[in-house]
């Protein structure tokens, strides 16, 4: 998605414990995890500007992480089927050489469709639910899980482009454009 904005980047994965902690607010959780990733990346690279993100899925006051095994994926997909839930992506940006993060946490409301048990099993067999919060991806062409959403499509994918652009501008890093974003203010 950053490439579509013309932002040059290098992916540098970091390993952090993605623990939700005790906070019952999904926006706080997503922000904290994104900030932790940015701080971990800063330890590996002292000079580059950094963008870090983490997406969480929240339903009925419960955080759904990334399923590790087929039974967890099945449970998540069954729980979310035909229901609305919240997707929050925390985004943290650090200036080159900086230590403090600028953070946003856009929220989207997503309703999944009434997919069948056979579709869940086919998705699991393909390996689609793994490494995805809530066990699904909005862009999954096999399961096509989403019936509707309210908010930024890119946020549900895992990185709200408009929020990222806003943070990059505030950090004086670059000025990319995202004219197609439905959340972009009309005067921007």
Reconstruct the topology from this structure.
Elements: H1 2-5, H2 26-44, E1 50-59, E2 62-64, H3 70-80, E3 84-94, E4 102-104, E5 107-112, H4 117-126, E6 146-150, H5 153-157, H6 161-170
Antiparallel strand pairs: 1-2, 1-3, 3-4, 3-5, 5-6
Helix pairs in contact: 3-4
**Unreliable stretches:** none
Q: How much strand content do the residues show?
A: 15-25%
Alpha-beta content class: alpha+beta
Q: Averaging pLDDT over every residue, what do you get? A: 89
Taking the alpha carbons of the first and last residues, their distance comes to 20 Å
Named CATH topology: Maf protein
The radius of gyration over CA amounts to 17 Å
Biggest sheet layout: 6 strands, antiparallel
Topology as a string of helices (H) and strands (E): HHEEHEEEHEHH
- In the residues, how many domains can be counted? 1
> What is the overall silhouette?
globular
CATH class: Alpha Beta
CATH architecture: Alpha-Beta Complex
């Amino acid at each position: 998605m950053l490439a579509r904005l013309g932002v040059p980047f290098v992916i540098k994965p970091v390993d952090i414990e993605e623990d939700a902690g005790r906070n019952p607010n999904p926006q706080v959780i997503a922000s904290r995890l994104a900030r932790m990733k940015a701080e971990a990346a800063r330890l590996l690279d002292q000079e580059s500007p950094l963008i870090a993100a983490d997406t969480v899925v929240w339903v009925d006051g419960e955080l759904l992480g990334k399923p590790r095994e087929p039974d967890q994926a099945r449970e998540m997909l069954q729980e979310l089927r035909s229901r609305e839930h919240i997707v929050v992506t925390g985004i943290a940006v650090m200036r080159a050489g900086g230590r403090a993060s600028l953070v946003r946490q856009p929220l989207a409301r997503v309703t999944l469709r009434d997919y069948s048990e056979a579709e869940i099993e086919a998705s699991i067999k393909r390996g689609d639910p793994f490494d995805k919060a809530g066990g699904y991806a909005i862009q999954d062409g096999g399961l096509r899980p989403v019936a509707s959403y309210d908010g930024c499509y890119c946020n549900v994918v895992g990185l709200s482009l408009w929020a990222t652009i806003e943070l990059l501008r505030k950090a004086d890093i670059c000025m990319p454009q995202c004219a197609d974003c439905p959340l972009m203010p009309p005067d921007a």
